[in-house]
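thought: fold this chain, then report.
action: predict
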Amino acid sequence: MISAAVIEALKEIVPADKVLLQEPMKLHTTFRIGGPADCLVYLENEEQLCKIQKYLRSLYRDRQRKQSAGQRPGICRNCSGGW
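observation:
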């Protein structure tokens, strides 16, 4: 599950109606299979892509710093090896 802070940050970069939570991936695949994605973001332009990439990289760096300092990261719950 993605934290509310991350979702709100994404909605500041792209319109809120382009940030879909628990979106069934079966609606987006050829064979109509796939469970829900935690978050699916539809981008409108390259600028949005760059902003989201920069934001997510900063989250990753913060998480790495917290882990190296012995703190538990707070980006999302139940992360197993992901960002």
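thought: worth noting. The beta strands are 19-24, 36-41.
final: tokens above.
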